[in-house]
Amino acid sequence: MRSRNNSIHEFNFIDSTLREGEQFRGTHFSIDDKREIASLLDRFGVEYMELSTPVASPQSADAIRTLADMRRRYKLLTHIRANMDDAKLAVDCGIDGADVYIGTSNYMREYSHGKSLEQVIEIGQKVVAYLNEQDIETRFSTEDTFRSNFADVMTVYRAMDLAGVDRVGVADTVGIADPMQTYNLISNLRDVVSCDIEFHGHNDSSCAVANAFCALQAGATHIDTTILGIGERNGITPMGALVGRLYTCDKALVDKYDLCLLPEIERVVAEKLGIEIPYNTPITGEVAFHHKAGVHTNAVLKNPMTYEAINPEDFGMSRVIDVAHRLVGRNAIREYAARGGLALPEDVLNLATAQVKLMADEGPITLEDVDRILSKMMLPLDD
Ligand code: HCA
Ligand code: CU
User: Fold this and answer.
1) Residue 79: which residues within 8 A CB-CB, separation 6 or more?
2) Most CB atoms within 10 A, among 153, 216, 273, 321?
3) Residue 113: which pLDDT band, with cuts at 50, 70 and 90?
4) Residues contacting residue 218 through CB under 8 Å, at least 6 positions apart
């Protein structure tokens, strides 16, 4: 369904962890790594997986052939330049679809492939016609869309739509678009083509998630994501964060995915890359469900939704009520003690809370310090 009334309907994730993600510093996925990541993402329910071009290296081609032979629900894509040799090799590797791209900005036309707009369209039509004949799903994107001449890209998109492409792709290659620009461009494009629309956004200026979300609101049907947002430079739209964004908009939008697999997928990818999941990653970051100030914890203990837009349990995560600090509230201490089997009388609770605060004023404290304070408080009662 294609809509442009700001409400998001049907959409697909194109997971590019094995393509854009291979362009991340320090990524060296073996074929086994690629199989493992693809299987996890298949179980999660992504609709497409995009792999590096088979032209890149023999392993890249082998990986496509290997995944093509595996049982899977997602459609297998590879990312190719707009030329016939690349398209033929991709088809030979057993893909379901090809993401064809070519630069349309002045930079790309001058310093990359050196083609005129007419030549871009001509080669695009030829490649798309060939792939259509081979029954391959096709996408044609204009690299660096936001620094390209608007009329030029619309001309290219219209020509490709008429040539029978399944999707056109908008690429914020250097991460400069803002949500309103993304919304406007895709809204305009929605009126120009009748095929599906894909959005690929880099995160150089922190807008990748917001831009992807606005792209969907404007009528995009496919969004490129990677696990933890890995990609060239600081990467593209992270799948987990976009899932979080969609969930907060309407939980039903993401109930087609196996959300509880997200933490494991991110852990597996992070481990293979030798990186930590950043502490402030939405949903899976260490502090994503960490409640600290007394006012917050008091309300969260009564109803977590007071300070949570996302239910951690929906993602197999759990919330933390932090009590080892000076901002602690008595209700948090009461609940903490109760979890440890201690029922504190009000006066003891007040004293214990005051002592935790005093101790925390001296310097950072730990749960063991809180335990010590509580057990000292309880001694007279035990006697
Ligand atoms: C690249 C560039 C690309 C392509 C995106 C697309 C970009 O690394 O080849 O095919 O739509 O950001 O423009 O990732
Ligand atoms: Cu990119």
Assistant:
1) 16, 19, 50, 51, 52, 53, 98, 99, 101
2) 216
3) confident
4) 4, 182, 183, 184, 185, 186, 187, 190
**Region 123-130: what's the mean pLDDT?**
98
Distance CA 108, CA 306 (A): 49
Q: Which residues contact 3 (CB under 8 A, 6 or more apart)?
A: 9, 219
- Choose, from 79, 200, 296, 325, the residue flagged as catalytic: 296
Query: Is 202 labeled as catalytic in the residue annotation?
Result: no
Residue 99 Cβ < 6 Å to ligand 1: yes
pLDDT tier at 109, thresholds 50, 70, 90: confident
Query: Does the Cβ of 200 fall within 6 Å of ligand 1?
Result: yes
Ligand 1 site, residue 355, Cβ cutoff 6 A:
no
Biggest CA–CA distance in the chain, Å, is 91
Return d(Cα 284, Cα 318) in angstroms, integer.
Answer: 10
For position 260, what pLDDT does the model report?
Answer: 98
Instruction: Indicate the pLDDT class of residue 5, thresholds 50, 70 and 90.
Output: low
CA 30 to centroid of ligand 2, rounded, Å: 21
* Number of the ligand closest to the Cα of 142: 1
Q: How far is the CA of 209 from the centre of ligand 2 (A)?
A: 14
Domains of the chain: 12-273 (3.20.20.70), 290-380 (1.10.238)
48, 79, 83, 172: residue to mutate for ligand 1 pocket, most atoms within 8 A of CB: 79
Partners of 222 in the beta sheet?
12, 198
Flag whether pLDDT at 271 surpasses 60.
yes
Average pLDDT over the chain, rounded to an integer: 95
The ligand that comes nearest to the alpha carbon of residue 231 is 2
173 CB under 6 A from ligand 1? yes
- What atom of ligand 1 comes closest to residue 236's alpha carbon? 12
User: Considering only CA atoms, which residue is closest to atom 4 of ligand 1?
Assistant: 143
Report how far ligand 2's centroid is from the alpha carbon of 175 (Å).
Answer: 9
Q: How far is the CA of 137 from the centre of ligand 1 (A)?
A: 18
**CA atoms of 11 and 341, how far apart (whole Å):** 48
Full-model pTM: 0.95
pLDDT value of position 300: 97
If phi over 0 gives left and psi between -120 and 50 gives alpha, with beta otherwise, what is residue 124?
A: alpha
pLDDT at res. 379:
52
